[in-house]
Amino acid sequence: MFPQTPHLKHTNTNNFFIMAGPCAIESEDVAFEIAEHINHLSNLYQIPWIFKGSYRKANRSRLDSFTGIGDIKALEILQKVGKHYNVPTVTDIHEANEAAMAAGYVDVLQIPAFLFRQTDLLVAAAQTGKTVNIKKGQFASSNAMVHAVNKVKESGNNDIILTERGNMFGYGDMIVDFRNIAWMKENNLPVVMDITHSLQQPNQNTGVTGGLPELIESIAKAAIAVGADGLFLETHPRPKEAKSDGANMLPLDQLETLLIKLIKLRKAII
């Protein structure tokens, strides 16, 4: 199942779709370097692709953490990428008054996991008419998502994606319960597995989020095997230089190998 997002290519295939790009928009050069590579792979392997990038990082551990290069500047870069490659784009919003602003530049508005219960945020996103990607809270069960879905639908928007990103387990670690994918698919909406954020190790004593990127392939394979419609992933050509979430990113040069394996797995199960 694919979202009804405009400009989504290759939807006549049986492939999964991906929401992929950098964690944050750091610069136009880096955004286009990443987008160029993913666009090539998307066309080569006929994988529907939504370019992902946060125009601002509002949820940071420390006051001196990178938050962005400026809202409009980053949104304009997202818009340029979308127009240049003729692909949809997605960014996260944090407050209701950001919905209309971001909707002027991107095709999909993403509700962060910590905020999936925020009624005013969901309603504002829905009322833009854009696709709304709702991430399941790290503290919530999958059956709680029906209430977020209903808030968007009752606000006049049925174009919704649901994203699983793991549940907190103890201190600073997350576990993925793959039953959540099957249960969220009961909403008859596209369901995505966030294969990089689910491997975060937040709230480290250094104030810098850690991660377990060596398990990205394992999480991705399991998600495809249980029927996820899409994968959300953050990637960067030089993760150690990334200004946000570098510890759990997939190196850009490893993306093709991963996608080839996942396409083979997908073909084996459908």
SS-based class: alpha/beta
Distance between the termini: 13 Å
Structural Rg: 17 Å
Low-confidence stretches: 204-208
Number of helices, where a helix is a run of at least 4 consecutive DSSP H or I residues: 8
Strand order of the largest sheet: 1-2-3-4-5-6-9-12
Mean pLDDT: 92
The proportion of residues in beta strands is: 15-25%
Q: Can you identify the CATH class?
A: Alpha Beta
CATH topology: TIM Barrel
Q: What helical percentage do the residues reach? A: 25-40%
- The number of strands is 13
Give the CATH superfamily: Aldolase class I
Largest sheet, strands/sense/barrel:
8 strands, parallel, barrel
What would CATH call the architecture?
Answer: Alpha-Beta Barrel
What pattern of helices and strands is seen along the backbone?
EHEHEHEHEHEEEHEEEHEEH
**Based on CA inertia axes, which overall geometry fits?**
globular
Oligomer: single chain
Number of domains: 1
